[in-house]
Amino acid sequence: MRKLMESANIGKDPSDLLEEDVVGVEFKSVEEAESFYHIYSKIIGFSVRKNQCRKNQAGIVTTRSWCCSNEGFRRTKYIKNPNRVREPRSEIRIGCRAMFRVCYSKITKLWVVKEFRANHNHCMATNMQKHFLRSHRKISAAELEQAKLLKKAGMKTSEIWNLFVHQNGGWDKVGCTKKDLYNSLAAGRRGVDDLDANTTLTFLQFKLDIDPEFSYAYMVDEESRLTHLFWADGASRFNYELFGDSLAFDSTYKTNRCQMPLVVLVGSNNHGMTCVFGFALIQNETAETYTWVLQKNLECMKDKLPETILTDGCRSMNKAIEDLMPSVVHRTCSWHILNNAIKHVHEEGFVFRVYPFFYRYYSVDEFDLRWNMMLLDYNAENNEWAKALYSSRHQWADTHLRGSYFGGSTATNRCESMNAFLKRFLDEKLPLWRALQHCDHGLAALRYGELGKHAADKLSTPVLKRTSMSEIEEQFASIYTRNMFLEVRYQITRSEKYNVVRHHKLKASDICTIEKYLSKDHPKRKVTFKRIEKEMSCDCYWLETKGIPCRHVFAAMKHLHLSDIPRNIIKNRWLKECKDIYLSSPDAQRRFVNPDMISSKRYGGINSQANLFLYYCKKSPKVQQRGMELMSTLLVEMQKMVEDVGEEEKTINGAVHEVHDGIKEPHPVATKGRPPQSKSSQQNSSQKSAKARICRVCKKSGHDYRNCKVRKQNAKLSGSCK
Predict the structure, then answer these.
(1) Helix, strand, or coil (residue 15)
(2) Between 39 and 689, whose confidence is greater?
């Protein structure tokens, strides 16, 4: 950019350029002019697209213009299509008039700027969002060539993308998104191992040095062996401060060579996406262990208790929550309970009868009545499992849990999906420090997706359907994230099926009775609106349970002709500006002072230039020969340099693992599953020899039914194969 500014005789900073500074500037070629405007747009923070191109009678381009990607408006036929199945893309064309136009001068033989508009009618992208702009996303020819080669070698596209991230030093430095890589490859088809616990703790200490908000804790046994480990970075702690009202956690296995179960504590952010609050590696799954994990999590989060907790029903987890957090509302995963119902009640159709108790809101008396009728119908009055399930109904029945927010889930599917996501990066043969590093990489990938959602919400607006409450819809679209706005709009659409059948106007409030159209079996709901406080509530408790207003509330708002959203139904956790995305430098997510990782970073710094060098070398034999000559000379020089600095590098890399000296690697642990065999059963099984296979026809060993000679002889005599 500096060279372009100097060649164009522009002495100002790009962000301060005005129309009079640019109009009249000359460029040697149209490509140079285009490069100038593209670099300028990236510095300012907007995307560019080509606009007009005029040619003379000879077909030579004489005028070329570029405009902001937000220029113009989308045609209504693409929005008002009644047969549309998918949601339309977010609107970006909002009539921005910023543009840049150059014309060719026959006198000077140069391209002269004739028009330059610098003012925009929209916000600019921040530094963390600029790499999402469309005109600044492009996969280079060298990287595309490398991707094709790796694809031929059998590497998945997602793995190739991860390789590019490491080579270039972060997602924002690749130059394109993962989807761009997928599209480019599709277009082509169409046309320090084995380190111990000491190093693991050194890794965590280094993360603390680069992130002051990072926190970790560990426990050792009498042999100074690592038993439990908990850690959470600054972004996780910040997320918990905003979204820690609901917590879910579960353990997963086969993530490291020590066979230590990995516990992931998760919640949901303002996009309704999963966010991670912390990790823990534990030696066993006892109540004491889970108490330690929850205790360290509370200490890390400044003793802030969650309002609700969702688990899979593990007894150890239940005991830890009951002892440490007795006031927190605890819910057991509905999927696990329904799965156990099949095993304990062997009556056809029982699961379908018990299913509504998890998701429908009955009164307490109606719940008990329906439950007793179900037990009578399936002869399960004396079933011990059914009795235990009823006694724990306060942890799973919607009747008793309605009004408590569990992140929009009734099962641990958020934990399961997070475990499956992390398994892409983890392996049962990984040493502990590498497992932690891969957890960081998976967490950074998760936050990168969140950053993309945040950028999309800021740089575009959702297309409004213009429902019967268009003013309310527009207000929610302006303040809520896109995902949550779509949830709210769905409730607005559903409200059209509901009518107000009774309206009581009191001194300071209005009470509306809501009924579904032509549905006598559907329960009536009462919505109360306090006129002074500007607050609205419904006795279905959907707002308290799901976090978004229900269809009954919108039906009452329409009846009362409310043009503004009541204060209490706007939840801060769903706002676009709920937080500034906390994402430290991508390098900080993966840096660790280790010889192996230092060499990897050096490789990443030179790899992009090496790829470009290889790309040019393959263009012709002459270029290849010259490249080999240069490479040979350079290799000799670099080899001599490596020999000279070898001792110095050894000294630097040798003083790395001295922070937590004395902590030993944990013993491999047995996870939950099949119980271990006793010594007597192991001896008996070892003494037993493998049972020989015996033919079922002749009762002799050494062959089976298919090769039995007796069967074949009998078949010939009888004339048929039996």
Answers:
(1) helix
(2) 39
Encode pLDDT of 45-82 as tens digits: 999 999 999 998 888 999 999 999 999 998 887 777 77
For 701-710, what is the mean pLDDT?
Answer: 79
d(CA 337, CA 393): 11
- Buried residues in 198-208 as b, exposed as e (16+ CB within 10 A): bbbbbbbebbe
- The span from the first CA to the last CA of the chain, in angstroms, equals 86
Torsion angle defined by CA atoms of residues 159, 163, 168 and 170, in that order, rounded to the nearest 10 degrees: 50
Rounded CA-CA distance 100/34 in Å is: 9
pTM for this prediction: 0.74
Nearest to 656 by CA among 280, 198, 252, 344: 198
Residue 277 structure tokens: 């609050």
DSSP state of 130: G
> For residue 584, what are the CA distances in angstroms to 204, 435, 601?
16, 20, 18
Q: Which tokens belong to 271?
A: 């996009």
How far is CA 110 from each of CA 5, 7, 8, 264, 271, rounded to the nearest angstrom? 16, 13, 11, 62, 50
Strands 308-311 and 246-252: parallel
Contact 294, 324 (CB under 8 A): yes
Tens digits of residue pLDDT in 411-420: 888 999 888 8
| Beta carbons within 10 angstroms of residue 562's beta carbon | 18
Compute the distance between CA of residue 466 and CA of residue 474 in angstroms, rounded to an integer: 8
Q: How many CB atoms lie within 10 A of CB 232?
A: 24
DSSP character string of 353-373: HHTHHHHS---HHHHHHHHHH
pLDDT in tens, 203-222: 888 889 888 899 999 998 88
DSSP per residue, 173-199? GSSS-HHHHHHHHHHHHH---S--HHH
- pLDDT tens track for 26-51: 899 999 999 999 999 999 999 999 99
Q: How buried is residue 376: exposed, middle or buried, by Cβ count under 10 Å (0-12/13-18/19+)?
A: exposed
134: nearest Cα among 28, 23, 24, 49: 49
| Per-residue CA distances from 402 to 70, 233, 249, 553 (Å) | 44, 33, 21, 17
73 beta partners: 94
